[in-house]
Sequence to fold (218 residues):
Amino acid sequence: MNIENVKFDEKGLIPAVVQNAQTKEVLTLAYMNRESLLKSVETGETWFFSRSRNELWHKGATSGNTQRIVEMKLDCDQDAIVVLVEPAGPACHKGTESCFEERVYGEEAGRSAADLAAYEILYTLEKVIQEREKTRPEGAYTTYLFEKGVDKILKKVGEESAEVIIAAKNRDKEELKWESADLIYHLMVLLREQDLPFNEVLRVLNKRHDKKSEPASE
Fold:
């Protein structure tokens, strides 16, 4: 993105719509000036300009709820920007995932904010596993897996896969639910052991979905 092409308003600001890169949920609407935009690009995390305090602010500097930037896109008029991020915690100062929680029109349909928030456990789980690998707290099962090494982890992935197959074969939804959760957990431990971020797997799924969505060539 060429900063010189950005059209700031008469106050030197541009509205920034911050969106979860994975769930596509809109997290907040903030404003950037030239300096905060440059800092966002340089640091890879969101910086904004506070109109009420008349100063720059780094999202998460105090709370720890930073936002790692995945992509930034200007609109067709180049006077608004979308910032796709991976949030390290709630976006709203009230502690909610998004600042847009209050419904003023429409009924629950499709993927609601609550539905999307449910997927946040995958992000949280990955962070917990990452922390367990670093700190190795005594008595933690995840610590045990990392200390035993890749062969033990692979064995558990295989065992849990078999349990999922058995539960599905038996049409036991309750058992399938629990075994699927076990499989996902052990798979994420394996990904961490291999130093492969779960986000890379999600990107593959997104690419496959995008290809299927493309119209057939004439």
Observations:
- The longest strand covers residues 67-74.
